[in-house]
Amino acid sequence: MRFSFIILILFVVASVFAEGSYTSLEEALKNPTEVKSLNLCGKGLVTLPESIGKLVNLQRLNISSNNLTSLPKVLFTITKLNYLNVTSNKLKAIPSSISNLKNLQELEIGFNQITALPKEIGALTKLTRFVATKNLLKALPVEMNQLVALSIIDLSYNSLTSIPVALTSIKNLRTLDVSYNKLLSTFPTEIKNMKALRLLNLKNTKITPKQVDELLWLIPDCQLML
Questions:
Q1: CATH for 2-169?
Q2: What pTM, to 2 d.p., does this model score?
């Protein structure tokens, strides 16, 4: 009896988590206003259909591991999105209309060919986690200092030459990964303002032992990975 009760509870919990979750856009469009989560990872998509704009209550969207070269404007009308994953596509830019997604909390754009971020990214004031690993970024827009909720940022495997000064104004930033930016050789003295920083990954950069000593003095509560 007890075993059957546990099975029943697990079934109910699984049903709750599955409610509103889809892995097919075609199926999702049958009940567009009920869709909360859509996972289209690895579907071989070359374009994202305009019909996705009908999913007005969508909160989580995963379109990673496809062949997308751009993101349609209609995507940025889904203002309830709090999670967006476009990892491993062929994107070269993020549209300025990203600023419309003001409820976004997590944004993953890694493994693309993005050379720059739009200044409008600064409007994502609820963003807590940002992953942009394995792109072609050489700098960040100063407007990123407006991302007051940001706690984790991964900029590994890019083309940065310095830790962006814009990040030093983000008071809640706890984890910063700039590893494998093989040309990164400097950091701004303003890094001392990053009081919340607890992990700084500097693996495979050009930061010298002398600079490491300076960092240990400027941010003594932060663990450095070298």
A1: 3.80.10.10
A2: 0.90
